[in-house]
Design a protein that fits this description.
The protein has 344 residues and is an alpha/beta fold. It is built from eleven helices and 20 strands. The chain is globular and about 60 Å long.
């Protein structure tokens, strides 16, 4: 089978790889769609995320869906040809965090496309049956691939405890920021303030329900939100940009006693913010670690049309053009929101 390997930072090669066989409790998935995630772009550009380094050729890709192509011993409840979305996390199930219901914080977690585990940018992958979630007839493989970032947004919203008539600020209108915005609106947020450096993304934010937007390359977002809210600012702030200045900005956008969710992954693996602002405001600051128990709800939200995942896919590439897909996302050109690699 063919697979896309990151062989060194900035270079992806299409190579032949052995087709996997599903072991006991596993499902063989014929991959149909893989989203290019910002976290994988860190590997593409830097060869690492924090202290996790890709020292060997790496198959990236963890936002994906495909068809069931084989069943290992002991697997039931799935049929050949069935379309499934796949949860890329592989928690151990028996550590303290898993037993307390926090598999995303598993002490022994493995994650597809994170060394040493390979990802989904290949024609076939073998995964645990518990990682597979059946897609209803109305959702495509690309829709299924979008459920992973939707899960992150859904987990973020749960952590933020957005309430009816809240004021919400979203910093960064990429895939997860725009999904978080849609979920905040569906949860009853009355005022949604969105920021970005790109006007086309801000236009999308307005289409998805933002009541006010701010291009931070031309305007001070703090002054804009102060004016919008009469000085009160936001109840909940979602930082989804991963830019060096974003965490500090989030603290300034939050009201006294507000909550800040840090979703974005900074390039240098460091978060900078002044202690005074957050301390004097008595802010609750939460780090978002992937997601947990979100796939059934994410599928239901997408199937019901409460979250528009489809229009966020702006670019599509075949597996052979994975390099071009990653370069486009890394450069942020051509109005890209989500690039999708599709097979078959």
């Amino acid at each position: 089978m063919k697979a896309a390997y990151l062989v060194r930072p900035g270079t992806i090669e299409i190579r032949e790889a052995p087709r996997p066989e599903p072991g006991p409790g596993q499902v063989l998935v014929r991959v149909r769609a893989v989203g290019v995630c910002g976290s994988d772009v860190h590997y593409f550009e830097e060869g690492r995320i924090g202290d996790t380094v890709a020292t060997e050729p790496l198959i990236m890709g963890h936002e994906f869906a495909g068809e069931v192509a084989g069943l290992g011993a002991g697997v039931s409840g799935m049929a050949l040809g069935q379309m499934v979305a796949v949860e890329p996390a592989m928690p151990c199930g028996h550590c303290e965090m898993c037993l307390e219901g926090h598999p995303n914080l598993c002490l022994n977690i493995r994650f597809m496309s994170t060394p040493p585990d390979q990802g989904a940018l290949a024609e076939y992958v073998a995964v645990g049956a518990e990682q597979c979630f059946a897609l209803p007839a109305g959702l495509t493989a690309a829709d299924g691939a979008m459920l992973e970032p939707l899960g992150v947004a859904l987990h973020s919203l749960r952590l933020g405890h957005v309430h009816l008539a809240d004021t919400v600020a979203v910093i960064g209108c990429g895939t997860i920021g725009l999904m978080t915005l849609q979920l905040a609106k569906a949860s009853g947020a009355l005022t949604i303030f969105a920021t970005d450096k790109l006007d086309d993304r801000l236009a999308l934010a307005q289409a998805y329900g933002a009541t006010a937007v701010c291009n931070v390359s031309r305007e001070d977002p703090v002054a804009a939100l102060v004016a919008l809210t009469g000085g009160r600012r936001a109840d909940v702030v979602f930082e989804a940009a991963g830019a060096p200045e974003s965490p500090e900005q989030a603290m300034k956008l939050a009201r006294n006693g507000g909550t800040v969710l840090l979703i974005g992954i900074p390039d240098d693996d460091r978060i900078g913010m002044g202690a005074g602002t957050s301390r004097r405001k008595g802010l609750t600051i939460k780090m978002v670690r992937r997601m947990k128990h979100t796939y059934p709800r994410a599928i239901a939200l997408a199937a019901a049309g409460m979250v528009d995942v489809r229009s966020l896919v702006t670019h599509r590439f075949p597996l052979e053009e994975t390099q071009q897909a990653f370069r486009l996302v890394a450069d942020g050109g051509d109005g890209v929101i989500k690039a999708m690699v599709e097979m078959g």
